[in-house]
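Board notes (copied after class):
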Amino acid sequence: MSNIWLRRALPRIAVALLLVTITACNMNSIKPSKDHALDLALYDFAGAMHWSDFDKAYDFVDPKTKTEHPLTDLERARYKQIEVSNYDVISSANGDGTVDRQIQLGLVNRNTQVGRSVIYREHWRWDATIKTWWLVSGLPDISPQQ
């Protein structure tokens, strides 16, 4: 009796799996909305910052900002010297195609294990042409303050 059930159920199971696969493929081709794209960008950027992956975080920086203010060798060396201990959003304000956030960033020097905190502002803009958010303000200034 189980063989008969299996022979009858197998084509239905195969069709169901095919439909699930087609649906999943179609879902991957759908462009996210502006708000969803913002959520993804902010989440991914925060993740890069939490893991002190400044190279990945730099991928979010607006190409125009990169051209006008490229990272110096000194800045790159400073980013390699610190570990991010916390990345906390203090405030956030959304405008028409822009987002401004104030961030408290905890930093620990990898060599001395001395911690400190910096406050910086992120300014994001929506690029409607390629449907992505760019960090216009660049990476945070982590240079020691006098």
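Comment from the instructor: The chain has a mean pLDDT of 87. The beta strands are 82-94, 98-109, 115-127, 132-135.
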